[in-house]
């Protein structure tokens, strides 16, 4: 399926971009990025229009990039400012520039029509930047799989019992109903597991020894940003759903970036209401998350390999697939909307519809 282009995608953490030229790929489009002298991050098409050499193989001169083949030089807006050996600058001598936004230590790139880039549409949470919450940037999980499968996995609480039995799940949740809501901007799937043994994660970081009430809320924002709100509280407190902040609560943030049809990068971070400012706790959480996400990676890559093989029959869908099914439809609708241009209602139509 084609990619959704009119969207913001995460290129990396703020710390990934400095003076050096950084080549990367998003939606099969090659980019070269760097931090300009004024502090803003620049993203340009990584291909000289002359002989197609990637600009990332050239060198940076101030806030411009000089092609490493014949020296054509481009500024941060993609305009050619020098052609060695001639004074005139052809109008076709440019590279595409991509809108960039940076916030909370995250660098976003708009991959579609620049005129439609709206920073108010970038994912945000009230807890980001709040003094009672701690944000920690994790790793980049490189997955040899299509991004749709990666994103679907992040709106699927049911897999946790089986894929992550020692870290994020256990057998207590296997038959607990999953609730799904698809009417809002985000697809949401959730469930509570009441009066059960704590999972490995919260044995380590919540200090729970007796039974707990625990929750998983999965939010999937189009086209591929996911938030997993999960936590635990002592079972005898009988906490209401809207009072989750009174328990140990963590947001696992997944910024899923399609690289190609067969390759995805999951930039993951976590946001928590405990151990605020404690970097040792962040490192310990990273270790456990790496174990859990490696389990996801193994499953997703195996699924991707099988999807590429010939099938004798169609895959089946079961009750827990409600969220992923709606997600696929929304992506198809977004792709279709980008494939055509609506010119609006005609002034003097020659076609009149009666139904």
Please tell me the total number of domains.
2
Total beta strands: 17
State the end-to-end distance. Answer: 33 Å
Tally of DSSP helical segments: 5
Identify the CATH homologous superfamily of the largest domain.
Answer: Naphthalene 1,2-dioxygenase Alpha Subunit, Chain A, domain 1
Organism: Puniceibacterium sediminis
Protein name: Vanillate O-demethylase monooxygenase subunit
Keywords: 2Fe-2S, Iron, Iron-sulfur, Metal-binding, Methyltransferase, Monooxygenase, Oxidoreductase, Transferase
GO molecular function: 2 iron, 2 sulfur cluster binding; metal ion binding; methyltransferase activity; monooxygenase activity
What do these coordinates show?
One of its GO terms (biological process) is methylation. This is Vanillate O-demethylase monooxygenase subunit. Residues 8-109 form the Rieske domain. This protein has helices at 147-153, 160-163, 200-205, 279-307, 322-339, and strands spanning 8-13, 22-26, 29-35, 41-45, 59-61, 64-66, 73-74, 80-82, 100-103, 106-110, 134-143, 179-181, 187-196, 212-221, 225-234, 248-260, 263-272. Strands 11-17-16-15-14-13-12 form a seven-stranded antiparallel sheet. A four-stranded antiparallel sheet has the order 5-6-7-8, with no helix packed on it. Strands 1-10-9 form a three-stranded antiparallel sheet, with no helix packed on it. It has two domains: 8-119, Rieske [2Fe-2S] iron-sulphur domain (Rieske Iron-sulfur Protein); 125-330, Alpha-Beta Complex (Naphthalene 1,2-dioxygenase Alpha Subunit, Chain A, domain 1). The protein is 18% helix and 31% strand. A hairpin with a 2-residue loop joins strand 9 and strand 10 (106-110). It starts with 7 loop residues before the first strand and ends in a 16-residue tail after the last helix. The model has no long low-confidence stretch (mean pLDDT 91).
